[in-house]
Amino acid sequence: MSRYWSETTRNLVPYVPGEQPKQPGLIKLNTNENPYGPSPQALEAIQAANCEHLRLYPDPASDALRDTIAGLHNVDRQQVFVGNGSDEVLAHAFNALLCHEAPVLFPDVTYSFYPVYCDLYGIAFEQVPLDEQFQIRLQDYRRQNGGIVFPNPNAPTGIALPLEQIEDLLQANSDSVVLVDEAYVDFGARSVMALVHRYPQLLVVRTLSKSHGLAGLRVGYAVGSPELIEGLTRVKDSFNSYPLGRLAQAGAQAALADSAWFIETRNRIVHSREALCLRMQEMGFEILPSSANFILARHPAIPGEQLAAQLRENNIVVRHFRRPARISAFVRITIGTEAQCDALLTVLVRLVGTRADSAITLD
Ligand SMILES: *Cc1c(COP(=O)(O)O)cnc(C)c1O
Known about the structure:
Elements: H1 7-11, E1 27-28, H2 40-48, H3 63-73, E2 80-83, H4 85-97, E3 104-107, H5 113-121, E4 125-128, E5 147-151, H6 163-172, E6 178-181, E7 202-207, E8 220-224, H7 226-236, H8 246-257, H9 259-282, E9 286-287, E10 294-298, H10 304-313, E11 316-317, E12 331-334, H11 338-352, H12 355-362
Parallel strand pairs: 1-11, 3-4, 3-5, 5-6, 6-7
Antiparallel strand pairs: 2-8, 7-8, 9-10, 10-12
Residues 32, 85-87, 111, 151, 155, 181, 183, 207, 209, 215, 220 line the site of pyridoxal-5'-phosphate.
């Protein structure tokens, strides 16, 4: 606390990102990074970017990258907004599109950055409880609101919503923005992207951090109606005209163009997730049905915090959330390479034993 801080700053409770450990040799399964990394073509494009040009500012509008994204999703360039990670895109969306008199609605168990943006921008919000199965119940969002935000699939549950339910919500909710955060959509959920043509209040947010293996480059984007994108651009141009550097624009464009690498690595992660879930279920774990590149799992005999600590002693880093209380018994595990999943299973067998063993502890 400092007397030089503004009142806003004094009252902030910042988002806490997952640990980036300095210690080498750890198996890092705590922040949903992609174990296979980006397309080699993205690395080439970054290396080939003319260093002479680093002297010059980048294109403030990222037109070439936005054209690539527009082509990918069958929309116009004016329907695409890019930012320094989707976190920045989300921040601008809260500021530009979700700051109204009525509260913004989002799930009580979801990406914990949403309430942080609300506090930063002074936005009223209400957290809508998940149902007993940890699912988002979209009928609960049909009321007065200043906007609706949810990830699909949700984080950190990994559970996806059916497309039809989201479209029903869009039909019932046309007076405020519906923001669907599709950070993990490539790992198994159905995208609402095609609906942007029919619903001017729909904003779809994506990131290259997860399914494109570029968390270190910081590139995210939003697709929506030209009026929503113009609102975001007004805030961006009042904040930072050059959110994406030349290397980020070049790398992102090449990564998005390499669909072969994207599909191959995505499929490997999905395959590993399914295999890991089966093996862990045999050990007695309860795992929420995941459509993401992570799973949320709990064991009846070991509290989540303890399991995370024991894995850490064995050089495996996973994420445990103390809050909200409903998920404190779980750990969130990012899907790593096949070898990393095997190493995790080896340690888990030692920690929890087989199903037969854990049944004894339960009885
Ligand atoms: C990881 C994540 C983001 C942020 O991604 P960046 O593009 O790396 O900023 C946004 N939303 C959700 C739900 C995420 O899990």
